[in-house]
Amino acid sequence: MSQSPVMERRSPDAGVEGHGPAETAFIRIDGARKVFTQRSGGAVPVLDNVDLAIAENEFVSFIGRSGCGKTTLLNMIAGLEDVSAGRIAIAGKVVTGPGQGQGVVFQQHALFPWLTAVDNVAFGFHKSGLAKAERRRRALDLLALVGLEAAAGRYPREMSGGMQQRVSIARALALDPQILLMDEPFGALDELTRIELQQELLRIWEARRKTIVFVTHSISEALMLSDRIVLLAPNPGRIKRIFPVDLPRPRLRTDPGFNALYQAIWNELST
Ligand SMILES: Nc1ncnc2c1ncn2[C@@H]1O[C@H](COP(=O)(O)OP(=O)(O)OP(=O)(O)O)[C@@H](O)[C@H]1O
Q1: Which atom number of ligand 1 is nearest to the Cα of residue 62?
Q2: 188-210: per-residue pLDDT in tens?
Q3: What is the CATH number of domain 5-103+177-269?
Q4: Are 31 and 247 in contact (CB under 8 A)?
Q5: Distance from residue 250's CA to the centre of ligand 1 (Å)
Q6: Cα 137 to middle of ligand 1, angstroms
């Protein structure tokens, strides 16, 4: 049986903790620190000395206790939060703000309630300069990619949570970003829908060759999806350990290797 590209894909720096090798770094985080200033004038250190190199087309998940800075780190990669010290660069270019070209897209949960599925996706093209008919045609293609062409005319209130997530993923893909940032996208879904969407996301990742940075609270989800799992610890947020996941895809929860990694991550999280 021939292996799919996803099955052949390996962590580019398996076994290496902290930095990945410089030649494979696509997203490079060097000594990143984040301090939030409170209204009272006090300073709260949230992330301290984060070093991480993510390769092109890599699927990396952040996991860690609530408040350890996962969302803040994702926001910093997106340029939505500035870096108090250190730097973040994408393809060698330092991130100084959001929306630098089409490179990075933050998948947002919320759809516009007054727009149909196809119009929500077409909104992803609103800065593209394409004619309306072309935006609609491309939006329909993306809906087909996420298996929702039949629901093109539905409003968000007429769709399940899983369908809404699919629409939101299609919208995020509209500008064909190189990097997709996803913050607990499947957290609110029932277990079955969640597993379906994980499979869907892997299929899209394989077909479209994206670099994905994904935040989750679920060890199983991180193990199902990721090339590497970055475990953050709180107070202040920092990288505690990086787990390369060298299991072939599609992954099985019953695989002894899966269970061994699950246990190792669980132990690290709970100490
Ligand atoms: N704008 C802000 N001003 C001050 N503190 C903030 C701000 N945003 C986040 N924080 C604090 O920074 C810390 C990290 O928050 P963040 O949301 O990044 O954590 P998280 O790991 O994503 O948490 P969760 O798993 O609960 O989503 C928290 O203590 C939070 O209260």
Answers
A1: 21
A2: 888 998 898 899 899 999 988 89
A3: 3.40.50.300
A4: no
A5: 33
A6: 39
